[in-house]
Amino acid sequence: MNIGTASRQSRLPVKTIRYYEEIGLVRPLRGDNGYREFSQADLERLKFLQRSRSLGFSIEECRDLLSLYEDTNRASADVKAITCQKIQEVDRKIAELKSLKRVLLEMVEACHGDDRPDCPIMDDLSGRERTHGGKQH
Amino acid sequence: MNIGTASRQSRLPVKTIRYYEEIGLVRPLRGDNGYREFSQADLERLKFLQRSRSLGFSIEECRDLLSLYEDTNRASADVKAITCQKIQEVDRKIAELKSLKRVLLEMVEACHGDDRPDCPIMDDLSGRERTHGGKQH
DNA sequence: TCTTGACCTTCCAGTGACTGGAGACCCTAA
DNA sequence: TTAGGGTCTCCAGTCACTGGAAGGTCAAGA
């Protein structure tokens, strides 16, 4: 199948597929006209990449996962380890974003938000101390 | 003050400060030796940038915030609006990561994680259907 | 005075993971 | 024959830095 078909079936943009070929994640054959020819196995790889990328694995992690995927002697423990690591990463990111949100919320709650130029958010951003007189959480 | 001092006081890497000058976020004077000379106002800008970047505002948002920061006639409502938008963005990201985590956790829970090559995580990544026979949440 | 080492300069290239566009070739149907 | 898509390569841009090379400057110590 051509790249367009592969793109629709894998839900990866054409450009992305070409890029994946460039970095060696997939190696379709070429027809006489120079067009890429994707086999069913190529399509499987693309689908695998689509799914693992959308689950937050980096390209290099995907490369590792792919080689495990194609290693029929792999231990499932190896895959599980990578996945557990990823979960911890995701947890870390969530925590970061939550504390970020807390700060932003505090700023917004302290701001009267009208036409006056004085603004506690600005004070916060500029590093000035703000008295925590208002609501406490 | 020189760039090194500005770097320590703003907690921004030297390289980053030079980059910020390149894109016009800060315009330090130059001494006879060609060294950048940061005024107290420049330092304030840098600190402002450090804080707002670390709160997840993009460079362009920082540029907007900076001009509001220096506009003594600004309305605090404008600042509040930008910040509220940012909170929504953060919320969206948190939700995404949470659903990501849910999927990853399901995968891990289904995986026996031993020396055997069969691995439900791999099945999942490759798009194969997995029977939801195990624990339900 | 000389040297050492820290600090500063510019410029260029690389990161990750694509994305956009130009210009050209190929294929199919009307 | 023509029109329209699809495909090709190559180059450049994105975002926000980061690293490194090659060289100029400065202050302290021998």
From TrEMBL, chains A, B:
GO terms for molecular function: copper ion binding; DNA binding; DNA-binding transcription factor activity. It is found in: Cytoplasm. InterPro entries: CueR, DNA-bd_dom_put_sf, MerR-type_HTH_dom, MerR_fam, Tscrpt_reg_MerR_DNA-bd. SUPFAM superfamilies: Putative DNA-binding domain. GO terms for cellular component: cytoplasm. SMART domains: HTH_MERR. Residues 1-68 form the HTH merR-type domain. Keywords: Cytoplasm, DNA-binding, Transcription, Transcription regulation. GO terms for biological process: positive regulation of DNA-templated transcription. Pfam families: MerR, MerR-DNA-bind. This is Cu(I)-responsive transcriptional regulator.
